[in-house]
Specification:
By secondary structure, this protein is an all-alpha fold. It is built from 43 helices and no strands. The relative contact order is 0.08.
């Protein structure tokens, strides 16, 4: 470990590190209270935020005093912090801020804090705010003209929520008035949910909207009330179920199904006149109403039938429908490819034994659409077994790439279901080696083309020469954009100046855009790939999910002899499994070490990642050399790899000053994981570097090492008047070190 590593930064003077054993007169809470009541504005703000997370008895008193701070941000943060404590002794001052503080943010925070403490004194004021801009409350009259936004609208919503949480019946008229105000901001959803939370009287008021002429209001009301309990709810829901609008009926279906999918009232929606309602209700609760599926499977609407088929796939135990197998077989021949595909998958779920041969035959039929083939593939994956595996392996020569990839994924899923080695795994190994789909034999070229050229009449040759010598023919536009910009093709592209040096990233980007080539480069929707190479590539990718020694050996050949994509994919898979394989074969290690020096940054990155999971001492020097790589991703990965190997002290500390932030963080984390002597001081120093950019990150790392020792160092900084520029970082670090989800937790004594 390089303890006490010197961090070099630009324009940043790091305070001297105090003695970590230094004593302190108080604790974290005390020093933050002092800053809150006597620091500059930015320090007071972050101190209030930190106290809200750390807690402590003195924190409440200090935060109450901060409610009178001259800075509105400090007052806002103090009120927000007090909301977490819900201490009654803060209520008086919070109420004064709510009534007399002109800042809308302070009012909102005070309102939240008062509602959290369930203070009855705030109820009359919340009712007055709900009704409008009360004259007895101070408002910032210039805010609207400055921003164009009426801050009362935010307070109205906050008051509404607070009154609902307190269960105030007197709030109902105000909430109803807000819903009915056509000229105001639409707050229907929030307001109706507030009515439901108030209790039975609020639910009764909500139910009246189910008879409103406005479909939007009825839909909102149905959505909320269908999830409620209490008197009158059943009648209200029944009204929503028979509403003339399908939107309202759907809203009721979703609410009922979320509360109780077995509710008998949902049966009416399974038989609804609208197909969309029937289909959605099947998805929501069909499994709880099995007796209705028989009728719905023969529904005239394809969306409903599709919903039933998907339900049967998910719940194959729902097999009481008469002659279900025969009906699924009929649907597999449906002219709708979507229905046929879903039926094939459902058939496999319902009757695996009978479905295997049927689905395998479908895959072998070249006239079957790719959509149906994919459904059969999903079905065979569910069935499993040798016959299903043979059918999946046989389709890998299909010309449809999506079908091939889905079949390969299904084989990988089957391989993951059984102990290794297994037949499906052997199929993947055969695919990556090129045995499953071998290289096609290429017939030798004939001389027909040559003879055709030589037999051309001389006059034709002259015409060709004239075309070549003359002006180039006008290019035909290859896209709509080309056609639009056709008038500008005569303009020459200005080349960059000779003195501009292109980075490897620039060159790679230019190659992707096709710069320097005639015409624009177009990318096909479906990649034009060679079949046998595509199968090897995808097999190499899937094998990364299997941490087995024979898999590492199988990936060696594509790593050594494949093209760029296959090599990179093989290395990526090795990186995934390296940490879980007990021992990496020597020849694979040698290949990875060679690839760590590749000209391609992506290959270097994955090779370094794979080497870091090998737990082999011989790769340490290779990784150390990669710490100076020109690419930041490679440097970061080299740091993480050295950390995994327990070699984070081997030159990693100097990268705390790396120009790239991700590299710096990786180095800091690697050092933190060692918990070696001196690392606390190093990380505290690092938190101040780079203008405190990594302060919170460093504090979180320190929390896992020694929270009290790190807190003492940051407190020492807060006692140093010469280090005020670092106080914000120190306060935020103390919050990370000592903060808790429970803001009333006792602070840690430093």
């Amino acid at each position: 470990m390089e303890a006490g590593v010197k961090i070099e930064t630009k324009n940043t003077e790091i305070p001297p590190m105090p003695n970590s054993n230094a004593t302190d007169d108080g604790n974290v809470c005390n020093i933050l209270c002092e800053v809150l009541l006597g620091g500059i504005d930015i320090h007071r703000t972050v101190a209030a935020q930190a106290l809200g997370k750390i807690g402590g008895e003195k924190a409440v008193d200090a935060l109450i005093k901060a409610l009178l701070d001259e800075d509105e941000d400090v007052r806002t943060d103090a009120a927000t912090a007090l909301a977490g404590f819900a201490d009654p002794k803060a209520n008086k001052q919070l109420l004064e801020n709510l009534i007399g503080d002109p800042c809308p943010e302070v009012k909102l925070a005070a309102m939240t804090a008062l509602a959290a403490s369930r203070n009855d004194e705030v109820i009359p004021w919340l009712l007055r705010i709900l009704a409008g801009r009360d004259e007895d409350i101070v408002w910032d009259e210039e805010e609207f003209f400055a921003t164009g936004w009426d801050d009362w609208l935010d307070m109205q919503l906050k008051a509404m929520e607070g009154l609902a949480n307190l269960g105030v019946d007197d709030a109902i008229p105000g909430i109803v008035a807000a819903i009915n105000d056509d000229e105001a901001l639409d707050i229907t959803d929030t307001a109706m949910k507030a009515l439901a939370r108030i209790g039975s009287s609020g639910v009764s008021a909500l139910a009246t909207y189910l008879e409103n002429s406005d479909t939007r209001l009825r839909r909102h009301a149905a959505s909320v009330i269908s999830g409620c309990e209490g008197p009158g709810v059943m009648d209200a829901v029944q009204l929503a179920i028979i509403d003339p609008s399908s939107e309202v009926r759907l809203a009721a279906a979703r609410g009922l199904a979320e509360k109780n999918p077995a509710d008998e009232r949902l049966v009416a929606l399974l038989l609804d006149e609208e197909p969309q309602v029937r289909a959605e209700t099947v998805r929501l609760c069909g499994a709880h109403h099995e007796s209705r599926l028989d009728l719905l499977l023969d529904d005239k609407n394809p969306e409903v039938r599709l919903a039933v088929l998907e339900l049967l796939t998910e719940h194959p135990e729902l097999t009481n429908t008469p002659m279900l197998d025969d009906r699924l077989c009929e649907l597999m021949s449906s002219p709708s490819t979507v229905i046929a595909s879903a039926a094939a998958t459902a058939f496999a779920a319902v009757n695996p034994k009978k479905a295997t041969s049927e689905l395998a035959s479908m895959l072998a039929d070249e006239e079957i659409s790719s959509e149906v083939q994919r459904g059969a593939i999903r079905g065979l994956q569910m069935v499993g077994g040798d016959e299903a595996l043979q059918g999946l392996a046989g389709i890998l020569t299909c010309t449809d790439r999506q079908v091939r990839l889905e079949a390969m994924s299904a084989i990988a899923e089957l391989a993951a279901q059984d102990d290794w080695p297994n037949a499906a795994g052997e199929t993947l190994l055969a695919a990556v080696s090129g045995e499953l789909v071998p290289v096609p034999e290429v017939e030798p070229e004939t001389d027909d083309a040559e003879e055709a050229v030589s037999s051309k009449p001389e006059e034709n040759a002259e015409e060709v020469d004239e075309d070549v010598a003359g002006e180039p023919e006008e290019e035909i536009p290859t896209s709509t954009l080309d056609s639009i910009l056709g008038g500008f093709k005569s303009q020459e592209v200005v080349s960059p100046p000779d003195d501009v040096e292109l980075t490897p990233e620039d060159i790679e980007f230019l190659s992707l855009t096709g710069a320097g080539k005639k015409g624009r480069r177009t990318i096909p929707v479906v990649p034009d790939v060679v079949l046998h190479e595509d199968v090897r590539l995808f097999a190499a990718r899937l094998l990364g999910n299997f941490s087995q020694p024979d898999v590492t050996l199988a990936l060696l050949d594509p790593l050594l002899n494949g093209d760029k994509d296959l090599r990179q994919t093989s290395i990526d898979s090795l990186a995934h499994i390296a940490g879980d394989v007990s021992e990496m074969p020597l020849e694979v290690l040698d290949a990875l070490q060679a690839e760590a020096k590749s000209d391609n940054r992506d290959i270097r990155h994955q090779a370094v990642r794979a080497l870091g999971g090998t737990n082999t001492a011989s790769v340490v020097m290779v990784l150390i050399n990669c710490l100076d790589d020109e690419d930041s991703f490679v440097r970061s990965e080299a740091i993480r790899s050295l950390g995994r190997l327990g070699e984070a002290g081997a030159g990693v500390g100097r990268l705390l000053a790396d120009p790239d932030s991700s590299v710096r963080l990786a180095a800091a984390q690697a050092l933190a994981d060692t918990a070696a002597p001196g690392v606390i001081e190093t990380l505290v120093e690092f938190s101040y570097a780079h203008e405190g950019y990594h302060g919170r990150h460093a504090a979180r790392m320190l929390k896992g090492i020694d929270r009290q020792a790190a807190s003492a160092l940051f407190i020492e900084t807060l006692h140093d008047e010469q280090s005020k520029r670092f106080w914000k970082v120190a306060i935020e670090a103390l919050e990370e070190l000592n903060g808790s989800q429970n803001s009333s937790a006792a602070p840690v004594v430093a």
